[in-house]
Request: fold
Amino acid sequence: MKVRLGIDVACRAAHQAACADQAGEFLFSGRRFRTTVEDLERLWAGLPDGADEVLVVMEPTRNAWIPLAAWFAAKGAKIAMVTPEQSADLRRYYHKHTKNDRLDARILARIPLLHPEGLRLSGAGELGPADPLRRATRRRRSLVKRRTATYQRIDALLEIYGPQWAGVLGEGDYSKAALTVLERTGADPAALKRMGRKRLTALLIRTSRGQWREDRAEAILQAAHTTLALWAAGGLDFAELAEDLAGEARLALQLTEEIKALDSRIGVLYEEADPTGLIASGPGMATISAAVVLGALGNPDRFDNLAGVRSFTGLTPTLDESGTSSRHGPPAKAGDPALREALFAAADRARKSDPTLAARYHRLVVAEGKHHNSAVCTLAAVLVTRLAACWRSRTPYQLRDVDGRPLTVEEAKAICAERYAVRDADRAKNRPKRASTRLKQGTKQGTKQGTKQGTSRRGQESPDNAPAAGPPSSKATRHTTT
Reply:
């Protein structure tokens, strides 16, 4: 008897298994289990008696599938990996225009005549990347992204040991203590056992400043014991995997130290650029986020008006107009993405400490049914406008109630929590409404695009340029040429 065991692999949640015979009839389905020896043994025992061949079919979900495949292979099962289907976006292809240096120069020379409002003269000292504050904040963003990628690689390597390590050492954002343990031992179960509970506890206390103690050391040793039981049948070179983990941990520690040193330098540069701390006075702003905003904006006085500041951030919504219809779309996303990231994070914090922003967020989410991200983008555009106004008037940001009454920080936070708290139930009731709105907008957009066929350049494009959405049809297709 041949059986087929299909497994939907999960990285953190429970896996699901379904078993079918060689005729395709299901013997069981929806069986949940985790990557533990006990659950795997229970699943294996649940296979029908007399099965002389077991084929396990899985998708390569990150690295969480590796312990499962090794365990079933040790039991004599055959392993089949299926490549996940990748959906390709259907893109329209536009005609390429001729480009050469001569044509570019002629256009640039005529811009003052053709589009004078598009010109913006650079002020004194506005040299873009030559600005040390802008350059330092951009470098910090790059280092943070590299450290995040390193953390993700550590996540993937620890999954080979088993899922229990995510709860022991953390996931996605590792502390100095966790990285030090990985650098010293690579989470090698044998190395951890040689270190012992006493030495491991002392290392954790020293590197975590007392936050991790005996209970954490015991959890780490228990995770090592679980890994040894999971890989009891062999198939994994612990020493080699530990070397890879130790190398990634060293890199993460070095990046953290570099970011820490860069933060000190950015603090000095920001103090020189904004001695009175006008940008940092805004709600949700700290020294680093204020430095990112000021470094990306440059001198806010260089903009003709506050609308130009909002437009520069790329947080202003796009506008789609046709005849009598008008619809605002997603943000334009023009400009510096680091500036938008800093403003988005600051606005998300500011809505908890500024009643005027909290009231706007509450109205957008609860009354108008906007998604959290959409509402925060609106707040970010408002926040940067106010910060630029503070810079121009040379006055710090003042927290006020919706009636204009000045507030202290403690009073403002209390009002935000009391009046404008958004509950999970408020967000949940708007999800069906947003889904219906997106469906209607998609239908209208498709109808509008259909009416343009033959009258616009989009209608003149060949549909053969786009990837097929499905298998080719067996029916003959008639093409009409114009």
